[in-house]
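User: I'm putting together a teaching handout on how multi-component assemblies are represented. Below are the sequence lines for each component of a complex, exactly as they appear in our records. Could you produce the 3D structure of the whole assembly as structure tokens, so the students can see both representations side by side? Please keep the chain order the same as the input.
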Amino acid sequence: MSTPDLEARSLVKRFGAYTAVDTLSFSVARGSFFSILGPSGCGKTTLLRMIAGFIAPDEGDILIGGNSMADVAPNRRPVNMVFQQLALFPMMSVGENVAFGLARRGVARAERVKKSAEMLERVGLGGAGHKAVDELSGGQRQRVAIARSLVLEPTLLLLDEPLGALDLKLREHMKIELKQLQAAFGTTFVYITHDQSEALVLSDHVGVMNKGRFEQLGTPQELYYSPATPFVAGFVGSNNKIAGRAKSVQGGIVELESAEGWSIHAQAHGAIAAGAAVEAFVRPEVASLGRTSSELPAGHPQYAATVESLLFDGANSAVLVREQKSRFEFRIALPQTGRFADLKVGEALQFGFDPARAVCFPVAGSPSA
Amino acid sequence: MLEAGTRRWQARLMLGLFLMPAVLWLVSLIILPHLDLAILSFRERVAPREYRASLEQYRTFFAEPLYWHIFVRTALMSAIATLLTLLIAFPIAWTIAKLLRGRASSLLFVVCLIPFWVSETVRTLGWMILLRESGVLPSLLVKLGITDVPIELLYRDSTILVGLVYTSLLFMVVPLVGSLESLDNALIEAAYDLGASGWSVLRKIVIPHAAPGITAGCIVVFMMTLGNYLTPTLLGGKNSQWFTEQIYTQFITRFNWEQGAAFGFLLLLLSTSMVWVGLRLTGQRFGEVMRRS
Amino acid sequence: MRRLLATILSLAVLASGGARADDAKRLRIISWADYVPAELIALFKKETGIQVEVTLSNNEEMISKLRATGGAGFDLAQPSQDRILAAQREFGIYKPIDLTKVKLDQFVPTLLETVRKNTTLDGKAYGLPYLWGTDGIVINTKKAKAADYLDLCKPELKGKTAVRLKRPTMMAFAFALGKDPFALYGDVKAYSALMDEVGKTMIACKANLKFFYDNKDQLLNGIRSGEVTAAMMWDTGGWVLNRENPDIQYVAPKSGALGWLDTFALPAKGRNDAGAYAWINFTMRPEIAAKITHVVGSFTASKGADQLADAKLKAQFAASLPDAALKNIKWYPAIPPGLEEIEGRVLDRVKAAN
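Assistant: Of course. Below is the structure of the complete assembly, with chains in the same order as your input.
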């Protein structure tokens, strides 16, 4: 086992009474793409700035490439950062931006020019070295910002929501490009974002951060299919959330009854006693849809519903239905077969899902035993 | 057609009326007096109330080493004062723009402004009370055992510089704060992150960004210093040798308006060319600098 | 175009001056510090209803201001008698005095005659005597010794003396060098050579000077604080200091005190000549003139007023200017044009020397 490129040991950072980062420990393997995903204010930016060295932790230590970074200034850390607004130097040309770090290391001028040209070539901006920064498009600037850091061959590249400022189309495009760049260079990336789709698409591992702690750390698949906490289940991917009380618990399957009187079954996560307050999450693509009950897979509970509205979005199309008895609103992904292309609002339907693929958590703070 | 023409004419008239005060002020108080002075400088007295066109006044300036010695000295001292002002104002501006927030920042600004609540005369006389041989500072130096007898701190070149820098500080701080405030902190962090030391951040990022502010501040301070009369004259005493004093002397005590006018134009020429050289050296344009400051 | 600057300046004066209708009710005097005591302004107002406004100045400034406006802005000026003719020839800033409107019998005849001689141009009188006094040396006898102007340059007084960077200092130094500059007034070449010599002497003396003073308070404070122990100074300043500290004395130098005589003159574009004549006649009454002497310390041209001066001043005068010294006073003759330019260049050189 090689040493991880980044290791955080019981990191704590407080601002007054507010704890931004709360006893956080994790490690990032060499060459991997690691994302920190969380809502704004969860402490992810503070964490990133501690890794970069702009903020000193109150407790704990950060190791990069196995070396402690305590008392190492940002300009001496083997870490480079791509800033949210990119922070390209407007007073310099593209080439000078890329060569900036090399010059600070005392690399000779000819060598600098050669290296920065090569780097620009690798990010697909060959020959753009003489251009001014504001002559570039948003995507090109992005690449310059990354090139400027990678030319220094850092152990770790930190990226602070670099796609946030781009429009949707470009963002989708840059996601793929980032992933390819990371694969091509093999540098360890630590990426922070509040956009779960960016995190899922790009990362080898994702830490879902909330209130200064990691709720869950795992592969995108683990987060998606086996969320460890209600927060993760709610934050990663879209989900139907049903809150209620556990009527009974049998063989790990909870029978939940919502306040409106809808009864469903879901896989228990954590200790749940009968009568406890619980919440269950069912992914839209887990539920199946039929015009008659015979169209649904057998052996799962079925519910009658009417179509509330149609959410057409090509491959991501979904339908919002209302469960007949409880009037509960439930989102179901439409299959790609086009079987339901002629669905109408108000039409009666049947739907059901496998309880084993629905998750149920005890509500924090309620009596669970 | 006719109506449109009338309306255009009316609009033009309105614009004309609107600009009238500025134009009047410019023409009657700046351009005309300068023209008058220019004509004065190119004539020579031959007998009482009898003058003729001549270059004599300018010839005198170059023939008498005394005058251009004072001229060069004034230019050099002004340049030194400008540089010193920049060096002192920069950390102050940096503190106001980047280190302090809200109240503290405006408070420091006000502290810089305080010297300007009193007139230059009072300020300068204050310095004199402080620095004269029987003044506060020399007696303090004796009390502290630094000097045996009170020493005269007035009438030295360094005293003139202190007074000039003090008077100019605000005019350097204001444009500097403006240009430093517009500097994105992320650029500084990015440079630092890419391995730059504090010095190279200053040299490569901060100074290039603040260049228009620095240039504007230097131009204003240099012109003010060059044209200052009171501070060098009072603080410099018998050794002040400031060119404006020479102009005053020619006009007022020598009744030699012709010579005074010529000296005035030489000073104008000097400040204009120094500003031009300054802009050239820093590769900036005047309009740009004045707008951005 | 030639007079444009003058026009603009006079416009500014006009703007600040207000309406013409009030002209007869106010009298604008440009004069020296203390020459127009507040007590007299109040008395004069009570008597005539005319409000006196005073602008403080000195010889050079008076001429320059009047020149800039072509003689407007003031109704009465008080230049020294030797500075009137050249300025009048050159710039035409004064108007002739109508002697029929002046009570000439109030004046000391000898002073009247001196001024008449020095200020008459083309048969017209341009000046009347007002105040006279002398320039000499003031010394703090406990700390310094000096009997003549050049003693101010002795090494033991280094950094402790002061003079003005003006023509009286040059005249004084010339006399102290044993020359008579006034005798050379007519010979530009010889005068120029003498001034060069004086300039060299002053440059050699410059290190001895604490400062060149250009207002009376600067010098008075310098002497009071002990920063200056000997200086070239006018008599009344010395007497003021003498009253505060008996160690400080005004003495007539061996080479002779310089006698100055300040005057009344009418600016060419004054608007209240009647007021000006009233003021002249008013101030030359012996009892009024005595009040002036009491404030300024100098004696006036008013006949009989010196008898009314206080005893202390009379004693000081007698001690500083005994008969021999009184006879040795060098009175300034009118300066011919061109000399001041020569002096100016020399003064510039002194200023620039290190």
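A couple of points students might notice: The interface with chain B takes residues 1-2, 4-5, 8, 60-61, 63-64, 67, 87, 89-92, 159, 165-166, 206, 209-212, 225-227, 337, 340-341, 344-345, 348-349, 351-352, 354 of chain C (CB under 8 Å). Chain C has a mean pLDDT of 90.
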